[in-house]
UniProtKB/TrEMBL annotation:
Alphabetical keyword list: 2Fe-2S, Dioxygenase, Iron, Iron-sulfur, Membrane, Metal-binding, Oxidoreductase, Transmembrane, Transmembrane helix
Compartments, record wording: Membrane
Native source organism of the sequence: Asticcacaulis aquaticus
CDD domains: Rieske_RO_Alpha_N
Domain Rieske as annotated: residue spans: 26-137
GO molecular function, one term: dioxygenase activity
Native organism taxonomy: Bacteria, Pseudomonadati, Pseudomonadota, Alphaproteobacteria, Caulobacterales
Protein name: Aromatic ring-hydroxylating dioxygenase subunit alpha
UniProt xrefs under PANTHER family: CHOLESTEROL 7-DESATURASE NVD, IRON-SULFUR DOMAIN CONTAINING PROTEIN
Record-linked Pfam families: Rieske (PF00355), VanA_C (PF19112)
Keyword presence, Amino-acid biosynthesis: no
Amino acid sequence: MPDQTAPAPAKERLVFGQGFLKDAWWFAALSGDLKPGKLQRYEILGEPVLLGRDTNGDVYAMRDICPHRAAPLSAGQMIPDPVTGKPIVQCPYHGWTFGTNGGCTAVPSLTADQPMDVERIRVRSYAVREQQGMVWVYITADPRRPTEPDHEPPVLPGVVGGNPIIVETMDFDSHIDHAIVGLMDPAHGPYVHQQWWWRSAKKQLSKVKAFEPREHGFAMIRHAPSKNSRAYRILGGAPATEITFRLPGIRYEHIQIGERQVLALTCLTPITPTKTRITQIFWSDHSLFRAIAPLFRLGVKAFLKQDGDMVNLQNEGLKYDPSLLWIDDADTQAKWYQQLKKEWFAHRAEQRDFVNPVKPATLKWTS
């Protein structure tokens, strides 16, 4: 439940392909990407973010701009505080130092008779969580509000955590809305992804899938893979898969083959209004999947490139700001995404619980 004592954030006008969903957890990095003492610059929702792990191993995030002369703090270094010994970040320009909570600890150019209260100087900090081998950053709608979130990042099912088997990343020249709608689009596969080992380009089948609401999203409930999905057959047995989408931008496919599992997670993180980072991560305790992982990785790269090429092609039309014609049932998931976003903005503005607008449904399409 949102903090009833905090002022309501300004109500945003929801326009597809514009703006970002805030007061939410965004995937930022894998745990292994952050090394103790190393300062790393990220851009998330158009904000420069210093994301790092201090010398004690704790993860932190703060705005990557020194309030003095705007130098990136990530270009500085982490040093021990001369008084407390705690790890602090030192700006490379004039040596100002900041705790990992964003509070200024020292301005070296001040003399003893200059009574400046450096503790009033702050850099915006962000709440972070490290769980299941991933780092999540909470971006608030109002930078002046406290960063303490009112909900937690998603806990994923299956064999998540530790070192993943496959990680592939690509930046799409697309607003996150278009990237997400493309991700959940069930009808483009035969035309965009035509690998012989994945799916027959000639043999399209009618699909009937049941969906139900889930926390901040929805799921295609567990089902046997389609008969024209060849890759699943390689794993043997009788695989059953469930595909879940959750705001603000994650989709995961949980596959069970007897007692073995595969989890395929796709995280979409906005970098700027026109660039979205797609990170695909796979975990599994299935020995055959681990054995074929090097070949499967090539397929993942091919999929990402094909989707990226289609995004670039789509941009040729989107630059004219056309109206988009969405149909039932193939585009219903895209419509649900819009409804979920609308409810997210409404429940934050009205300071009430989130009410999932998705209802159980059975959708049909051909692909």
